[in-house]
Recover the amino acids of this structure.
């Protein structure tokens, strides 16, 4: 029996326990009744990822982030813009279905993106607590610098931005994936969960980083590692692709990794 | 005649042509009628900057960004937090006045922060147009890599994040200081002003950077340099301090530079 785009969407969303009001998850392009010939899972449906998916014969792309450079697809600003137009034309010509799967995978329990990050770091046995937007791990005592080196190696990150003294001894570590590094979410975790170190994907530069700088200036041993948005969430989409492959043995499922968006010079 | 805190605030705000609704500019702490013994100007009133200001004998701190790690001082979340409490206690014990001067300096014409950035880059003679949130410069033809090297050297930046091919020839460049790197502001500039390159302080990672990646993937010669929020705005506060010194010859005016908040490992 052929698998339709809507069948796959139903399968993805079945384990989502709580609905997200005003969710960004949607079939951005394509026909829900189209037969799925192959699925490409990616963190970010870049032009290059779409081309690779198409070459591989996938006609359903499941992307964590959106197509057009902003969180809400419903309010595009770029309609008259040639990059936007060319990307849209490519999708239409190849008749690709593109499903944004963002809020749903974050609502898996545990959060599917966080679970992938923790596995990639090899920290499954150190998990202390999963909160709704963060996870707390209790690592064997090591320095912030040693943890930074481990993070770089296990996630394949070339350059990591850090705040604080890298010789700081750390045990209790907070993890926030994606854009959850803002002060409102991250700062209270330090005190509430007695954290030595936070790792996050992305956040405003003068919120959590400046808090950590001030804390260190007051003699408190705290530190911060900033992984990058993509770098912190891509492992979760890879884990999701692996699981989807197991659930759909008759459909080719590809994971398309996306390179870091930044070079550092 | 003694200069009061309020006199200085009146002097700063006099050139502001348009008022900002719901502005963040305010006397965060201190008595507007206190006599000013010295002024310390800084991008960011970190704990260390406050200590240095106090040692120098300044009792009025003028800071571009806020004290407590979030844009709106009016909605603090950190009252029970020891770093917050210690910083507040330090300010109270030293009887410091702290004035946040953010929206006002951005509303100078030209934007005082942008003017400082352009001067520090030595690009005054290349300015093409000042827009409300960005400036357009027309540089002698050079590669994105050559411009990156110039930016690093003139702003004292150790590591710069870039997107695109550094051999791309660039002439038309858009500048966005601070947190104005988001897609809504930055992306339309490329097409509207026929830009080859954008430099911004800070912005969401999967907006403008991913747009530039896609444009490059389609064969368009575009590039992006991400300076850092602090790195892009500090020169403007230095310029402002220099001008304030000229306006207040009888009051010591210090500029307190703040180190980059991130190390890169």
């Amino acid at each position: 029996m052929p698998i339709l785009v809507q069948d796959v969407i139903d399968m993805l969303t079945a384990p989502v326990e709580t609905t997200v009001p005003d969710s960004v998850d949607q079939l951005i392009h394509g026909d829900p009744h189209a037969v799925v010939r192959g699925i490409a899972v990616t963190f970010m449906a870049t032009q290059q990822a779409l081309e690779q998916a198409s070459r591989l014969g996938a006609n359903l792309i499941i992307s964590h982030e959106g197509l057009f450079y902003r969180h809400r697809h419903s309010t595009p600003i770029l309609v008259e813009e040639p990059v936007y137009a060319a990307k849209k034309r490519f999708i239409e010509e190849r008749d690709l279905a593109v499903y944004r799967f963002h809020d749903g995978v974050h609502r898996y329990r545990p959060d599917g993106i966080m679970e992938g990050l923790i596995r990639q770091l090899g920290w499954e046995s150190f998990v202390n607590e999963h909160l709704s937007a963060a996870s707390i791990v209790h690592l064997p005592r090591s320095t912030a610098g040693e943890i930074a080196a481990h993070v770089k190696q296990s996630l394949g990150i070339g350059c990591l931005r850090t705040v604080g003294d890298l010789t700081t001894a750390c045990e209790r570590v907070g993890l926030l994936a994606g854009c959850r590094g803002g002060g409102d979410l991250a700062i209270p975790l330090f005190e509430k969960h007695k954290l030595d170190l936070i790792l996050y994907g992305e956040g405003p530069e003068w919120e959590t980083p400046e808090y950590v700088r001030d804390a260190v200036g007051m003699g408190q041993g705290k530190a911060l590692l900033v992984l990058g948005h993509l770098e912190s969430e891509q492992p979760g989409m890879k884990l999701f692709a692996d699981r989807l492959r197991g659930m759909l043995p008759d459909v080719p499922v590809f994971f398309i990794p996306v390179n870091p968006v930044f070079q550092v010079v």
In short: The mean pLDDT of chain B is 95.
